Amino acid sequence: MEAQRTPLHAEHEALGATFTDFAGWRMPLRYSGDLAEHHAVRTAAGLFDLSHMGEIRVVGPGAADALDRALVGDASGIGVGRARYTMICAADGGIMDDLIVYRLAEQEYLVVANAANAPLVTTELTERAAGRRAEVIDAAAEYALIAVQGPAAAATLAPLCAADLPALRYYASQATTVAGRPVLLARTGYTGEEGFELFVAPDDAPSLWTVLLEAGAAHGLVPTGLACRDTLRLEAGMPLHGHELSAAVTPFHAGLGRVVRFDKPDDFVGRAALSAVSVSGPGQVLVGLVGESRRAPRHGYPVLDPETGATLGTITSGAPSPTLGHPIAMAYVLPDHATPGTRLAVDIRGRHEPVTVAELPFYRRPSSSSPATAKAG
């Protein structure tokens, strides 16, 4: 089946993007180069096309109740205009997807799912909402999604936006206009930097993309692709479904047990299994690793005991860190080898390269008070 194209595909072609097929979509991988784009987001701003993400509306007087049952988080506790990071889990506690849930009105929510998982999430939400006064609507065709990320994101948007950007709190959203076009503006992102995400009508996306590029040029903004998005989120310790998150692990394995709300008054799917893991503890836990050589660990590489060579776990994501100047990785390891400062090794093509367990995230933006938890890809 031919990969889908976002409403911005022609703009990416005109900018000379290199493309890749990702989760059924033809997406820009890079424009000027991975390092240049990564550093632009850390020092100025980057413009991302995220229109491959899945959007699902849940509406009706029973919408909050339906989402409370379907998800591990407390959807009914989200204030109108606010958002929350959460997960949808199977009955055995395995992570089916991680999500951001925006409450747009008292009886209306917007659920943003990873592109590859959006059909599954839509089906699961529909089934779990049965018997409740809520309608689940696949709304992906209603939206294109553009992200402006980096220290200059606000400066780029401010002259174009009708909203009071400094007043928009982290993990909040507001219906407003940007360059005269209606948008749902959210202060969220997946880079570890200040930033905003703009949900717009697909027909408005090309002109808005062009306006943002022009407005941001004076601030150093550049178009940015999936390659630098991955190294940015890795530095920020943000998990990616299919790597750190999967049906084989629970939120407690991933160090995200805080998103599970056992204090909700009613039952939710996966509650019993997750409660058991919260008491017994997971068999493996997610850690950060800092490499001591120039060779970077990659997804799937074994993590070893440096003295015995015994396998202790597996790398989930790894790359050279453009910001920090050395290799970094995340991995699942046995709990008794997860203490920061513990020295381990990674089998990189037959050589045992030294690594040290480190606290996540590897990178925090200066003066950052925002939690390093955000949407995936």
Automatic annotation (TrEMBL):
Q: Name one GO molecular function term.
A: aminomethyltransferase activity
* Residues involved in substrate binding: 197
Q: Which SUPFAM superfamilies match?
A: Aminomethyltransferase beta-barrel domain, Folate-binding domain
Q: Which Gene Ontology cellular-component terms appear in the entry?
A: cytosol; glycine cleavage complex
Alphabetical keyword list? Aminotransferase, Methyltransferase, Transferase
Residue span, Aminomethyltransferase C-terminal domain: 286-363
The protein's superkingdom reads Bacteria
Q: What class of enzyme is it?
A: transferase
Q: What is its EC number?
A: 2.1.2.10
Record's catalysed reaction(s): N(6)-[(R)-S(8)-aminomethyldihydrolipoyl]-L-lysyl-[protein] + (6S)-5,6,7,8-tetrahydrofolate = N(6)-[(R)-dihydrolipoyl]-L-lysyl-[protein] + (6R)-5,10-methylene-5,6,7,8-tetrahydrofolate + NH4(+)
The GCVT N-terminal domain covers: 8-264
* Family named by the database record: Belongs to the GcvT family.
UniProt subunit comment: The glycine cleavage system is composed of four proteins: P, T, L and H.
Supply the name of the protein.
Answer: Aminomethyltransferase
Q: Which gene encodes it?
A: gcvT
